[in-house]
Structure formats: structure tokens, C-alpha cells
Amino acid sequence: MYDLIVVGGGPAGLSAACAAWDNGLRKILIVERDHELGGILNQCIHNGFGLHYFKEELTGPEYAGRFIQLLGQTGVEVRLDAMVLEVTPDRQVHMVSKKEGYRVEQARSIVLAMGCRERTRGAIGIPGSRPAGVYTAGAAQRYVNMEGWLPGNRVVILGSGDIGLIMARRMTLEGAKVLACVELMPYSSGLNRNIVQCLHDYDIPLYLSHTVTEIRGERRVEQVVVSRVDGRRSPIPGTEMVFDCDTLLLSVGLIPENELTRQAGIEMDRRTNGAVVYENMETSLPGVFACGNVCHVHDLVDFVTAESQRAGAAAARYVLGGERAGGESALLQLKNGDGVTYTVPQRLRREQVDRMCEVFFRVNRVCGDSEIVVTSGETQIAAFKREHLAPGEMEHISLPRALLDRAEGELTVSIREVEKQ
Amino acid sequence: MYDVVIIGSGITGSAAAYELSKYQLKVAVLEKENDVAQGATKANSAILHAGYDPVPGSLMARLNVRGVELARQLCRDLDVPYEPIGSFVLAFSQEQKAMVEQLYRRGVENGVPGLQVLTGDEARAMEPNLSPQVVAALYAPSAAICMPWEYCLALAETAAVNGVEFYLEHPVTALERVDEGWKVTAGGQVFASRYVISAAGVEAAQVHALAAPCPYAIHPTRGEYYLMDKSEGGRVSRVIFQCPSEKGKGVLVAPTVDGNLIVGPNAQVVDGEDTRNTAAGLGYVRERAAESVPSIDFRQSIRNFAGVRAVADTGDFVIGPVEGAPGFFEAAGICSPGLSAAPAVAEYLAQLLSRDGLELREKERFQNTRKRVRFNRLSAEEKAALVAANPAYGRVICRCETVTEGEILDAIHSPIPPRSVDGVKRRAGAGLGRCQGGFCGPRVVELLCREQGKRPGDMLQDRAGSWMLARETKGGAAHV
Lengths: 421, 480
What we know:
The structure holds two protein chains of two kinds.
Chain A lengths: L1 E6 L3 H12 L5 E4 L15 E3 L8 E2 H13 L4 E3 L2 E6 L4 E6 L3 E12 L3 E3 L2 H4 L9 E3 H11 L1 E2 L3 E5 L3 H12 L3 E6 L9 H8 L6 E2 L2 E7 L6 E6 L12 E4 L2 E4 L3 E3 L2 H5 L4 E2 L4 E2 L12 E3 L10 H19 L11 E6 L3 E5 L2 E3 L6 E8 L6 E7 L2 E8 L8 E6 H4 L5 E8 L4
Parallel strand pairs in A: 1-2, 1-8, 2-5, 8-22, 10-18, 12-13, 12-18, 13-14, 23-30
Antiparallel strand pairs in A: 3-4, 6-7, 7-8, 9-19, 15-16, 16-17, 20-21, 23-25, 24-26, 26-29, 27-28, 27-30
Helix pairs in contact in A: 1-2, 1-8, 4-5, 5-6
Chain B lengths: L1 E6 L3 H10 L6 E4 L16 E2 L10 H19 L4 E2 L3 E5 L2 H17 L5 E4 H7 L9 E5 L3 E3 L1 H14 L3 E3 L4 E7 L2 E6 L2 E10 L5 H8 L6 E11 L10 E4 L9 E4 L5 E4 L3 E2 L9 H14 L8 E12 L5 E4 L6 E5 L5 H18 L24 H10 L6 E3 L4 E2 H8 L8 H8 L12 H12 L18 E2 L8
């Protein structure tokens, strides 16, 4: 019997396990499907990780290394090359590996930290032929950074998500010609610093409000056709540009990998594609927590770490019996008001909040000077000023416990743009 | 000297190879692509039709009904995923209801068992997600779904195990009639054979023309599809057709044997093997499918594809000896229900050859079994036992479909070894799932390289020329 089983040894799983250890749990197991800890950070050899958490710029492997080192100072058990096949509602974890065979382990608590996967060509339905040379940006990144192979020589990138932007630079540095980065929306979904450092610095054009409307080539990509789109994201005939290329990279979104979560019958949020969680990252299944990209897709690993530490600490508190009586009356539902796509957590139990409750969310449009307004019924609970909001950048606010005491039943987070004088 | 050379290793050619491998014959299969099942066989609706569609008395009608009867046992013997889930043909108007009733009568005449005409409410009671507009439905309990390329692979592999020689990447370029049979030039080699069977799919007329003037034309007809995530797999539990038109059986919605949902096809005449997807074609498929099952969530799409069916202008299958070319037989115009009819087509071809003088003496030892490990279909206890016996089944390579290293090694060492990453996909299922090989692709490359002594730079995604990796990075390849 384990106090805690953590599914996934990426940044979320590592942080959760360390935090659970620091909060008193001793029998902890991390199950990782790859042959080493660190998750996707291992292929992210660029820098820019850790600015918030460590106040310095680390590469992905370095960032992971810091936590692997911390983990080494604990007694947390790690099983590598082991795949979790099922998590049951009574907290049994079925796993399989070459070394240990098929095992079923019982846990007092579970942290789900499986991360996310990339959206593919099939998810967005790009017309044309289906040759080799269409890769998700992350798959290309793995080939370049882990395997030492360049997937192509002349590249077009669809989507301006961060991995796509990073790969534009990476492929250029490896001698490939990146012809264009094409974004369906009128704004990039990537971080501004990546637009500057990965596209502008290398004279790679960014076509906003454009998309790939056809892939050509029988065996290997030979051309892609790019068209401008109108306000309803439909391609405008007559605006086609043809790029001669052998590779199309897709950076068109990430999807939390929640097959185990769904299988366990845990309540899901259609907006985040992750589990519905409470203030401490607990899911609808008591003692089962979710954190990191499996819960909602983050931009920065630093925030994954912070969120996962909360989940790990909460798992410890759950096992060690430190939960305070919540009571139905103190349950607050978070609602997405105007301009808000989702919030995490989706629910909070007021009595569980010590001093502050962190609420993460994304906006659904680019906004200038704005106020983030938190209301409960007719009552405004809080307002926070922002100079700039964009869907590509996750936002968060901290709600003091004292303010929560004024709320009843629900909390609505909305955006109010401030009129320019 | 071969007894029979078969041109093409789609479902028809492979079924013929399987059928002939039962007898004491020297048989070769010539395939232009680098794998079997590369044409319409790998890109269709994956359905074994009950047999109420074809006009009574046609070859299509006879061979469809006989084919699905044979398929039931064949799929069991050769371990091909097969599920007799039944089908509906929906009527949305009184006019269509009359068509459904006509199909019922046609089906009865064709010998299709268990047909029933249901009211709209009866149909919805069985399939709650059907449109409220449905007024009647033909229910055919004998319709089944299967895994088409595995069906073909199973037939081809069993043929190979029983001595049939497969020559991949051997496109036929010349046919010459000689005294005792034919000289077939393919891939730079000459194959002498008493008989030739052409099962050349979309290129049937071209191959025919190498032997004799061709009296028919093939109109390649493209159908486009959506394959949806397993989250949509439960949307219907039977194959849901609409009323057929002159353009084909219309857009269907059906579960797949892997638990996904397949939606399609449209029907568009194209030049040759043009398997492109188009915005218009996919839009049409979405619209029509929503008429049958309005709640389909197309955001759950994991892949689009298209297949080209070899439709002959004769309106029926073209099966038999070719006039002016003694010893040359063909199975042409094998469009839908070609997958359903395949084993019956093969049986029929064998009869024709026998009537022409080919002696069919049964082999003393014909191996009529095939078995493969499907880790994700095993119970927890079976998984535990399997991994204990062979740890390679304990390493999951494809996360979406839970395909293990052991299964991929089985595929790599199968009787017709894969020559590409997609070849592994078709044999073991790695990369079929929602991430479409994003995670497992590099690992499959690694295993293929290790087992076949190749380098990643040689690796193909699918057909010849579909190279995956351009060159090593400046720092050089990692290991391998």
C-alpha cells in the first residue's frame, strides 16, 4: 500500500511527489512511462525555463534536473519504463513494465500528472494528399533534439504555439530553411518573447489570419498552399500562396491526456479538457488529484510546478487526515464570465482555503487595459487591473480568504475592458 | 515456371492467393507497392455488407452473400477482428421508405437472412442517437464490421506461410503470351506462368490492355472519410446507412472494430489513384452524416483519409477469362462490395481456373490458422501471464492503443515483413490512435532500424519515396 502514487514523472509529477514528501508522506511511488524522469522537458533544450520559480534561465533538462536532484534527497520510489493502464475509483493503479511485469498497486491517494499531447492533422482536417513530412512540432523536436535527425529541409509551420515557434528557430539553426509560420487567428497563441526570439530574429515571416488549405505531394510533402482567412476563419479564395517545401510542422494546440481520468469516471471540464478540480487540485474522486498539463495546458513550467506542489501537499493532507470539514454550504462554483474561457479550479471549498486561493484562467480574446472582475451574484468581490490580456498567456489572480467569505454559491470571473479616455 | 501469377495484393489478389495456396500449385503474387493492401483495401468503410444492395442475379449479389458467409469462419480462423453488429438503412421520407421496402425484397431475393423493416421509433429504440427525422429503417442483422487491411494481411500471410511467393515493389510492365502460358515482366524480372490472374484494382484496364484490348473502362471513384476518436465510438452500435443512390451506398456512420467511429464516404470520379481529401468532400460527408446522427462531434476527428474504388462501367464485377488471352483471368471492377465478396471471388476464380484445366489437388498440410497477440484486448490476468512469459510485452510503445514492443517485434518478423512505419501500424496497430503516431513514431523507427539493420535516414512513412528524415543534425545521430 502506497500513501501516494504519482502517474507521470514530468515536471508536474516530480513537483507533486517532492511536495508530498515535504508534507510528511513517506511511501510514495512515481510511475513514469519513459526511460528517464523529466517528461517533455528532456527534449526542450532551449532556455527560458525557471524564470519565475528559480529566478534564472534554465534549459528544459536543467529545470527537470533540479527537481530530479531534489527527489534524490527523498525516499520517493520511481518506476521507469512503466505504463499505467488503469486507475480504478477505489485507487488501485494497474501498471505494466518489462522489469516488473503487470502489477496492481493500492494507493491511499493518487496524483494524475500525465501531461498532454499535440493536436494532429486529423484533428484539424487539412485537405490535400497525405504524404510523409507532416509532423507535429513536438514530434519533430524529439527527432532533432533526442534522436539527432532533422525531419526536413524546407519547412512551413502551421500554428504559432510555443513549440512551433521554438522549432522554427531550432530547425533554422540546424540549417533548414523555415519559409513561414502561419497562424489562423489574428494573434499568436505563443508567448511574445518567442515571437521575437524565434521568428523576428531569424526573419521568418508570421502570417496571421492565414491557414494551410492544401497539402501537396504524393509520397513526401512537395508544396503547401496557404490562404488568408476571413473573420469567421474561412479561407478567402484568391489569396492562395504556394510554398515549395518538404515539411509541414503543426503547432495547433495541446490536448490534456485524460484517458485514465475518464476511465476512472472522474468528472471532466469540456473547456479545459481536464478534470474538474477543487482549490487543492482534488478531482471529483476523493483522494485523486490532477495537476500540470493534464489538468489544463500551461504556458510556463514554473506554474506547473507551483500548481503541482499544491496538489502534492493536498494529497499529503488527505492521507494524514488533516482535511477540515468542508460542508456543502461552503462550496463555491467558479463560472466563466464575459471574456473568460475557463478557470482552474472550477470549484472551491471555502473552509479549505488558508489565506489565499489561486485562480488560473484564460481569456478568449486579446484585450488592452482591462479589469478582471470577480462577482458573486450581484456583489463585486474583487477587481484586478491588467494592461494586456491574450488567449496565449495564462492569467491568474489570488483571492484572499476574507474576500471569499463574502461570496455565496458561485463566483464569476469576467473581463471588463477599460474604455480609453 | 509458376502455375499461377497473381497481379495485385489487395483484398482480391490476397484472397485469390490464399485460396490457391490450399492446392499443390506454385503461385507468385506481384505487387507494385511496398506492402499488401495499399489500394482501396486500406481505405474503405470496413464493412461486410449483408447483400441487399446488388441487383439480384448479378455477380455482385451472388458473391457478396457468399463472401460474407465465408468471411465469418475465415476471420475466426485467421484471427481477423470481425463483429457482426448489423446495419440499418434509414428512410427520411415516404419515398425513401418505399426504397427501403424495395431493398428488403431485393435482400430476400438475394438470400440475405433476418431482414426486417422497422418503424422510425423502433429504429430509435435500438439506436437512440438516430435523427428524429427517420421514418423507417431496413435492419440487416448479418452485416458486419471488420479490419480490412488486417483481413487482407491475414489472407496474404497465410498464403505466404503456405508457400505463395510475394514480390513487393514489382510493378507489372509487360505481358507476353507464350506457348505454355505467359511471361510477366515485373520489377525487372520475368515470371513465366501457366495462368495469370489480374486483380489490379484501379489499374485493371491498363493491365488488361497489356494482354488484350480492354472492353470496359474503370472509373476510379474517390470516397472521403473521417475517423473519430474512441470517445465518439459509442455514438451508434450498428452500421448506419442512408438510402443508396446511383452514386453509391451514401454516407454511413459506423463503429470500427477498434472502437472508433468511421464516417463517410462521398463519391467522386477522379483520375487514377487520386486519394486527396478536399474541403468540399469532407464538408459533404459532415453534412450528410449529421442527417443520420445529428450529435456526432466532428471535433473528435483523429484522421481524414480517402480511398479510390475501381468502379467498372459495366455496373457489375468483371470476373472471368479475358477474351483473346487464353490463360489470362481477371477480377476487375471490384468496388463495393469487394471487401465483402473477396473470399467468394477467390473461390469463383479457382473454379474458373479448374474448369480451364488447372488441376486443384489439395495440399496435405495446409496451415489454416493465424494468431497474433493483441495486448489491449486481454484481461489483467492474461496480460500478467503474457508479460511474465515475455517481458517485451511489458513495454508499451503506442500509448493511445496500448501496443507493446512484443507486438511490434511480432509484426516486424511476420511472414510479409513491414517495410515502413505505416506497415508496422497496419500489422500491430501502433499509431492508429488519437495522437496518430506522434509519440510512438520515433520508437517504431528505432525498433525497425534495430531489427532490420537500417538507419533512421532510410526509414519510410509508408510507400516508396515517403522518406521521414532528411539528415543527421550537426551534432550527429544519437545512437542506433
